[in-house]
Amino acid sequence: MTDDVVTWRDRAFPDGGVPLAEVGAQGWNLLNGDFHLPVVALRDNAIERNLGLMRDYCARHDVLLAPHAKTTMSPALVERQLAAGAWGVTVANVQQARVFLTAGVQRILIANPVVGPADLTYLAACQRADPDLQVLMLVDSVETVSALADRVIGADDDPRPQSVMIELGYSGGRGGVRSTEEAMRIAQAVHEADGLQLVGLEGYEGLVPGRDLDERRRHVAEFLGWSATVLHDLLDRGMLPARGALVSFGGSSYFDLVVTQFREAWTGDRIEVVLRSGCYLTHDHGLYARTSPFTGRDPEPLPALEVWAEVLSCPEPGRAILGAGRRDVSTDADLPLPFAVRRGGRTQPVEGLQVTGVNDQHAMVSVPEHLSLEVGDLVGLGISHPCTTFDKWRLIPVVTDRYEVTGAVRTYF
């Protein structure tokens, strides 16, 4: 990738045009006055632990992993995931695919239908230029199948068929077919189309509704059970490869249910199960701390992503104002979660502080009587749903547990 120098556009970083590869040699510390605040950080030890947990889980259960790269949009972090055994990466659209194709990733699953002429032309050119490149696409309608067949995929100068997967969905959800009959109709359309090859099924269970976690897990299991029935039918009718058909489900909350349904119940090599969990890499202090199948196990995953902000004002008793808001930290799943306070060069864990609201650049904190915050204190903010924090920062420092900066990773949203 080409953005290899730290510049004034990389907010929070010290000035100076330091080469990205030399960030770790500057002797910087995130919290000792070297960085402008607010600042985001990635804890390297937490990333390593989380990588190892998912690597070992996939090996133990004989499943593949194509982590959803939209979580971080960082080639440097995806490279670490691939080095830890990931089978490929998942993206949401062709713009995201462009980032990782440019970075040299050789297997990409695009977890949405692709129908635009510019997108299809680009992907066809990439696959013609690189015989080893594998791009998987989704179809959930006969119209999508026709779009792929009628445009550039399967052009005469590229005899390889385009691999596609049927996307399954649930009532009220996003994309995906809603009935077995429709899945069969689309499978037949793929078989009749020139230049296309049906290689598997795909679905996303992470947003299945329910009143609480137990009910959501029951509904997810029902959706996966129906998906398994569709898989059986397609295999029985010879519409999928007899060996190695791809079955891809599994966000960061319910991948254990995917393993139970598709790996524990299917022996041998008839199918390959591909999880697409992305947020396992950083975990978090909120959403995934509550829902990850790893939570409560030994060892547990660790939250790797955090934001630090200064106390700018204490305008009235029990209230403090931090210099970080919606422009800096996720607020779509939970408000930021204070977990530590730094004063006089010492960092202490804290419980009881609560962010009660955010503006674009400020967070309002409720301070109970047994705690105190002072102007100039630093507050560490935990994240809930890391994706929407990553997309706010172009360059993120990587730190030790003592906040020594050992490097930095770029994002490409």
TrEMBL record:
Q: Which SUPFAM superfamilies match?
A: PLP-binding barrel
* The enzyme's E.C. designation: 4.1.2.42
| UniProt xrefs under InterPro entries | Ala_racemase_N, D-amino_acid_metab_enzyme, D-ser_dehydrat-like_dom, D-ser_dehydrat-like_sf, PLP-binding_barrel
- The D-serine dehydratase-like domain extends over 304-400
Q: Which UniProt keywords apply?
A: Lyase
Please verify whether the record's keywords include Lyase. yes
Keyword Lyase set for record: yes
Name of the top EC class for this enzyme: lyase
A single Gene Ontology MF term assigned here is:
D-threonine aldolase activity
Family statement: Belongs to the DSD1 family.
Q: Which PANTHER family match?
A: D-SERINE DEAMINASE, ZGC:162816-RELATED
What's the protein name? D-threonine aldolase
